[in-house]
Amino acid sequence: MRLLVDAGNSRVKWAVYSAGACVAEGAIAHADADTLAAAWAPFALVDGWASNVASADLRARIDAASPVALTWVGAARAAFGVINHYREVGEQGADRWLAVLAARALVAGDVVVACAGTALTVEALTAGGDYLGGLILPGHHLMQQSLARGTARLDREQGEHRLFPQGTSDAIASGIIDAQAGAIERLRARLAQASGRPSPEVVLTGGGAAALAPHVAAPVRIVDNLVLLGLLRVADAS
Which residues bind ATP per the record (predicted)? Predict the structure, then answer.
């Protein structure tokens, strides 16, 4: 059995695979990392693969919890026919690279990969395998918190997305969704313009994907745990 671990900005997501199938998965807050040892103890693990965009301390806690040595994966200049055009590959979050590698296995053509978590990342990948880079902006809760902390009267309960918001809570919710969907659509339009091909598919993942998907034009689909799928692809090729 193979252990896969994605240490993100807010949570640690993990899965156990056997013979190519997922047999268990989970997600915990960083503060609960010490519970991972008990969660993984029932499995006859033979190896483990992990990525981390959080702290070195969290990585150490995950290493201590794992019953097998973990191979920590970072961004690379090339893999699986994908060329990484990031200027400094070493500064790029491994989660972004792994999400792109997973999306390449799912979509043969041009694709925009959006991970909606603590941050929203939006990546552009061409049909020819050129990963052109992408965008990073605050996720839904970070945007909402910034308004609550930075203004005198915008600490409001969660509103709903409206075409024409007529209340402050709805105006905030609508502004956040439209900003995030707008970032996706702008990068999508740039990729189509650069390639000369039709508007590419969008692959969405992350805890905010379901709320965002209805506001992104088709074709769009949600794929859960895209970073873990990227890790699995790297592990299977090792």
Answer: 6-13, 118
